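Repro:
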Amino acid sequence: MPDPVNVGLKTQILPAGEAATAAATRTLAGGGLVGFPTETVYGLGADATNAQAVARLYQAKGRPAFNPLIAHVGDLEAACKIARFDALAGRLAEVFWPGPLTLVLPKAEGCPVADLATAGLDTVAIRIPAHPVARDILRAFGGPVVAPSANLSGHVSPTTAAHVQSDLSGRIDLIVDGGRVEVGVESTIVGCFETPLLLRPGGLPREAIERVLGRALAGVPEEAAGEAAAPLAPGMLASHYAPRTPVRLEATSVAPGETLLAFGPLPVAGHETAITVMNLSERGDLAEAAANLFGYLRSLDGKGARGIAVMPVPDHGLGEAINDRLRRAAIGRS
């Protein structure tokens, strides 16, 4: 759990707009913490160059200090001050930025991002978000902002300002309310190494990236993917995005005392007896399912059920990211 010295702040909540952007800029410049919307999930922002601010962020989230953070910037010029781009990385940035793609790249000479934010690695994770509120804040601030999901570490990621308030009120300085996010799962992370690696599936499908690369993305080596291994990139801890209620995957029936997280048309055996049924997408739309995923997990986690039964979700396109999050939610709890 986060250190109690972080509790007791008066967390201000402002609707997105010029006043909120100005307040966010002042807060970040002063070493404070700001929850703000991106197109993927709400991020918890801190000045990436300020090690004390980054330490406060880890503390507020209760996040392991060896888990690196993504530096968010407003444009490619700012990105080039932080990281070194080869032809492959430049092509991916040209096609997919701004958007839900994070690139892990070698640090630029004199990279200003605090070592604490990169977990001591010689690489940095970086992206340009597409959400207009995020971009306004980043451009006004003028420097890189680390912004992991704005929730307690291990909890379900936030897709509304209310989710941020629920987890972090009293622990952070400001929340900018930009409404519900569009994508609903975190960014896809690609390591731009000699062999491009898919480090984390996310809001940009693997297939779209592979079409641009003209080659398949490799997976993470087994020795680098375990719970004990220091992560190569954000979001790679095995037990991540976990509700308190046990999660049971690939469910084809509902047991007594369970809620049901459905996908596509019902029925599933016993669904009538489920405490609550929430359908990620009745029409089987993976984009709709991704947008609903974390909000629905949060809702089902508060129903007092003995478990959450999750119907199968196709493992292609955005389904790969959805299933990745669901597997992480179920680790140690199924």
